[in-house]
Amino acid sequence: MTHRQKLAGSLVLLTSVQILILFAGFFAPYNFAVQDRQRPFAPPTTLHFMDLRGNVHIRPFVYDLEDSGKSILVSQSDSEHCYPILFFVRGMPYKIAGVFTSEVHLFGVEAPGHIFLMGSDAYGRDQFSRFLFGGQISMLAGLIAAILSLSIGIIVGGIAGYYGGWVDELLMRGGELFLALPWLYLLFAVRAALPLHISQWEVFLLLVSVMGLIGWARPARLIRGVVLSARHRNFVVAARGFGASDLYLLRRHVLPETYGVLLTQMTLLIPQYVLAEVTLTFLGLGVGEPLPSWGSLLSSLQQYYVVSSYWWMFLPALLLIPLFLVFYTAADALQELHKSVTL
Amino acid sequence: MRTLLAVKNLSVSYRCADASQQRAVEDVSFDIGTGEVLGLMGESGCGKTSIALAVLGLLSKDQGQVSGSIEFLGRELPTMDKNALRAIRGTGISAVFQEPGMALNPVMRVRDQVAEVIHAHRDLKWQQCRADAEVVLARVGLPNSQRIFSAYPHQLSGGQQQRVALAQALACEPALLIADEPTASLDARSQYELLALLRELQRELRISVLLISHSAEVQARLADRLMVMAQGRIVEQGRFEELYRNPAHTCTRAMLRNSPPADAIEDFDFEMVT
């Protein structure tokens, strides 16, 4: 497979994941906060095409969880226990991107039937819905933190590489200081210093800004290197000879050289920050209940009885692994393509 | 003839990796009058390009040290403040460098690269700058077609690229053009055409040219006056014909006659040249 195909493939996959997450309300059958105390730790619902009497249905259906097949055999009639899956059903209202309100869901079953594709958690909340909604917070955190640290990186790296001399020394030594900082402990410290009860939004901002503010050093170093070599390119010297100002040169001739590195860094940093958010929320530093994030979905795994009894609670973690792999494949392909362009 | 550029006791030294100083140009003085073409000739590595860069103030402090006086229309360039110097570059002094493929931004359309020079100096709208750029591009002999104007440098031939670079340099009608080996990377035919164009534009616009070239052919075609450099110093100068008839220095003889005598080669420190 060529790098171009790899990139195209991973971009298609990433885009579809983003669409799933962005329109979580539509793709998820339930709201992330709705509880069903009757069904804690329900296993993933199986979809059936054949009923117990051997009739094949084109439309898949689910059995009610309460009677897991046994009572149906007794009653000999499963019509009142089986619920066909309906598409574009009306359900709980939700908002798309915080603006449009809708109540149409891609799929669902009629009450009192339930469909838990990835099982349910301790409160009987649908894990699948929570996974999709949780992606909104986790991906947003990763995206904002990556943009934040890349913006700082491009400013610091651009200035350091372009002006050189003591400015370069100062900024790069400062960057090394940030590289040496153990960000996890720093975040613990910052969180400990703040009052215990702060709003979810503030927690989110804190998380994102600490991750973004600490991570700028690595992209800054890379950008500095590119700028350093770009500012002695003949066309940059020539443009200066025609009267271009420093700012113009940076903006028009030097920084465009860094876009390849920036793009690759972006695809590397986003999963890294998503993982950081997952780690922090897992440890209880992130956005708390009832808001789901990928980290809080995993945090129930801190309980021994969950780990030992309910295997489906691992599903969110298992789903994250291929997602990160796709991100890294995209980054790898981007880097290879960039290399072949510049060489 | 008024003196346009007067260079006195110019020295350029580069810092080497071991913190020692390598002198590239030593104590060079010359001046150029308005409308004059001054040829600067010398073996490669003798400091020709260093003079060009020093005159435009393009050597950064961490690269090289420049000392001496460079006066352009009576104003001292090395001590001038940044913004005033920027205003002179492009409108007062402009340059064409060798290797046009390297001197053009590979990811910008050529029309925009000429337009940005105009935009930097004239208080015009970007659209107007682009329209003016097309006029300049047509003037340097490029076909008047949108295909050429909106091409990227790699889509053009070497000769066309050098014309674009020339258009950039002449866009704001400078008084002095520094042409640093403008034809070095071109084949014989485009070399001939470009020199003819340069001559024509020089006469038409009444600009002075500092023509840097190691080639006697190029110098013979354009230069009114010739300076010969060797190892950072000017060893001889005068009218081209005079130098050609009785060259005093071995280097002059070697370059003008294209047949270096054996002793000239022995005298020459090739270590420094490469």
Written overview of the protein:
The complex is a heterodimer of chains A (343) and B (274). With 343 residues, chain A is mainly α. Chain A has 14 helices and 5 strands. Chain A folds into 2 domains: 45-115, no CATH class; 131-342, MetI-like (MetI-like fold, Orthogonal Bundle). In chain A, α4 packs parallel to α7, α5 packs antiparallel against α8 (217-230) and α9 packs antiparallel against α10 (246-254). By secondary structure, chain B is an alpha/beta fold. Chain B has one domain: 3-Layer(aba) Sandwich (Rossmann fold), CATH 3.40.50.300. Chain B is built from 13 helices and 10 strands. Chain B has helices at residues 48-56, 82-88, 100-103, 110-121, 126-139, 146-149, 158-170, 188-205, 216-222, 240-245, 250-257, 262-267, 270-273; strands spanning 3-15, 21-33, 37-42, 64-72, 75-76, 93-96, 176-180, 208-212, 225-230, 233-239. A 6-stranded mixed beta sheet of chain B has the order 6-7-8-3-9-10, sandwiched between helices. In chain B, strands 2-1-4-5 form a 4-stranded antiparallel beta sheet, covered by helices on one side. In chain B, α4 runs parallel beside α7. At the A-B interface, α9 and α10 of A face α2, α4 and α7 of B.
Q: What is the element layout, followed by pairings?
A:
The complex is a heterodimer of chains A (343) and B (274).
Chain A: H1 3-22, H2 24-27, E1 48-50, E2 56-63, H3 70-75, E3 82-84, E4 86-96, E5 100-108, H4 127-163, H5 165-180, H6 183-193, H7 200-214, H8 217-230, H9 234-241, H10 246-254, H11 259-282, H12 294-299, H13 304-309, H14 315-342
Antiparallel strand pairs in A: 1-2, 2-3, 4-5
Chain B: E1 3-15, E2 21-33, E3 37-42, H1 48-56, E4 64-72, E5 75-76, H2 82-88, E6 93-96, H3 100-103, H4 110-121, H5 126-139, H6 146-149, H7 158-170, E7 176-180, H8 188-205, E8 208-212, H9 216-222, E9 225-230, E10 233-239, H10 240-245, H11 250-257, H12 262-267, H13 270-273
Parallel strand pairs in B: 3-8, 3-9, 6-7, 7-8
Antiparallel strand pairs in B: 1-2, 1-4, 4-5, 9-10
